[in-house]
Design brief:
271 residues; 7-stranded mixed β-sheet; globular
């Protein structure tokens, strides 16, 4: 839910090996004291919040800054976290400098920390949405579009689904299908989060282990050509993946593995 940038106040290797935000280079930067008081500027020798945000691997700590934030030529004023420390893993190992969180405002530090919300309130978008296009492989670039979705990036009809619990982009899923056959893995319904930060399909251990058994991908790829379509019921639509979408196939080694992982999120957010 937040924009995180390494700042010049951070001397960790994870920060110094990347481009860092320097508030002294900005005429519009304001040091913000508290997340719940987005206009409370830090007084000389005054108190201020320090936040620590933890990820699946690693963590970052930082302070709050308000500034003009531009994505291409779309600009909005908003608050973000300027990191004062970052763990080596993963930040010293990754090519990107910071993280732009695109969750809903419930996941943000405060009202002015959600960049898309700031863009919407400041009326700088063509339409109040953003869209993500994932390249099918390493040869095809991925992209995020703010204020539109591009017709040339999809086929068929767009499926719209209401957010069930704001925070994550969380929707209800009626069931999982193999070759169009309902697997009855969801009971009344599954709750799923549409997530750009995870490269595998993740789910509760019991559901995922059952799916892995049912799909039964041979490690030597011997059954690759007979693997089923994997479908997810969202709204009135079945969203389907072909084996090439959900199987990681190493042609050189002739090895195949299924792109599913167990992830048990405890209540109240999960399962």
């Amino acid at each position: 839910g937040n924009l995180l940038l390494p700042s010049t106040s951070c001397s960790d290797d994870a920060c110094t090996s990347h481009k860092r935000y320097d508030p002294k280079q900005s005429k519009t930067a304001k040091q913000i004291a508290f997340a719940d008081q987005p206009d409370a500027v830090v007084k000389p020798d005054g108190d201020r919040d320090v936040v620590t945000i933890t990820f699946g691997t690693g963590e970052t700590s930082g302070v709050f800054v308000k500034d003009n934030i531009c994505v291409g030529d779309i600009c909005a004023t908003g608050d973000f976290v300027a990191s004062t420390s970052e763990s080596d893993e993963p930040f010293s190992l990754v090519p990107f400098d910071g993280i732009l969180g695109l969750a809903l405002p419930q996941m943000s530090e405060g009202d002015s920390f959600n960049l898309v919300d700031c863009m919407i309130k400041q009326k700088v978008l063509k339409e109040n949405l953003f869209s993500v296009f994932f390249g099918a492989n390493d040869d095809e670039a991925s992209e995020i579009s703010f204020g539109e979705f591009k017709k040339e990036r999809y086929t068929g009809e767009i499926t719209w689904a209401p957010v069930t619990t704001p925070g994550y982009w969380q929707v209800a899923m009626s069931d999982i299908y193999l070759n169009g056959t309902q697997q009855k893995l969801c009971g009344k319904s599954c709750q799923v989060a549409v997530d750009t930060g995870t490269s595998l399909l993740a789910g509760p251990s019991d559901v995922i282990n059952s799916l892995i058994d049912k799909i039964d991908v041979a490690t030597d790829c011997s059954n690759y050509n007979t693997l089923p379509m994997l479908g997810f019921g969202v709204g009135d639509t079945r969203l389907e993946l072909a084996p090439e979408d959900y199987v990681d196939k190493d042609a050189d080694a002739n090895e195949c593995s299924v792109g599913l992982m167990t992830l048990d999120v405890p209540p109240p957010k999960g399962p």
